[in-house]
């Protein structure tokens, strides 16, 4: 039925949540920050995530003065932990290096891609930074599996906008009725697919309750279940 499967990347094919935390744990250990015990970590990490989200939103929507991802990271660290000014840039550089050069897969993602690539074109549509997304795919040795990789900062458009999906369809040389989009986000992925007139498979990785108004074409809780979806 479908000629291509297009995936969201973070928390769909790659475990962004785990990667973010694990790379930060490596960073604070390497810089000898006193965050090894769980009480210290549990105080630091949620606070950092809150500040990071605020600065990331300012960066993405150009509401603040942040010009680069390095600005975002430096300000996130500065708002979370009190250190000498020179330490923030070093922390940010270490974290960003680890994040861009590691690849942690969602359960079953590698096996799924290996199976599906034999029968379908593969694509990615990601709201993110092209440098990081492409390096992480390369680190996981799956970059070459994809016929199209569209990342929002390179494309200048974001999900849930229809335009970013149109770019993917153009690269895949397919119509919206010939592809299935798989993602974990109802706000970006579900509504984006709706805007583009593309069938959507909701990867409900946390088995969350969904309101009756949300009607994805398919819903799965495990990536291995996608095989039965595309073969139906």
UniProtKB/TrEMBL annotation:
Protein's name according to its UniProt entry: Noncanonical pyrimidine nucleotidase, YjjG family protein
Pfam families referenced in this protein's UniProt entry, alphabetically: HAD_2
Superkingdom of origin organism: Bacteria
């Amino acid at each position: 039925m479908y000629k291509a499967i297009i995936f969201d990347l973070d928390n769909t094919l790659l475990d962004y949540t785990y990667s973010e935390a694990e790379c930060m744990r490596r960073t604070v250990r390497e810089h000898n920050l006193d965050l090894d015990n769980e009480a210290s970590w549990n105080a630091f990490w949620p606070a950092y995530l809150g500040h990071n989200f605020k600065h990331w939103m300012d960066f993405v929507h150009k509401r603040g003065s942040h010009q680069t991802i390095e600005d975002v990271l430096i300000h996130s660290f500065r708002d979370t932990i009190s250190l000498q000014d020179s330490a923030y840039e070093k922390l940010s550089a270490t974290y960003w290096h680890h994040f861009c050069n590691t690849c942690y897969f969602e359960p079953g993602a590698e096996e799924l891609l290996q199976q599906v690539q034999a029968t379908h074109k593969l694509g990615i549509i990601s709201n993110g930074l092209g440098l990081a997304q492409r390096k992480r795919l390369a680190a996981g040795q799956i970059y070459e599996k994809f016929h199209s990789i569209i990342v929002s900062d390179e494309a200048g458009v974001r999900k849930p906008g229809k335009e970013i999906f149109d770019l993917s369809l153009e690269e895949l040389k397919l119509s919206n009725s010939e592809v299935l989009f798989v993602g974990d986000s109802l706000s970006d992925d579900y509504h984006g697919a709706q805007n583009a007139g593309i069938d959507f498979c909701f990867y409900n990785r946390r088995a969350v309750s969904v309101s009756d108004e949300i009607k994805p074409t398919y819903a799965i809780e495990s990536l291995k279940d996608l095989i039965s979806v595309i073969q139906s």
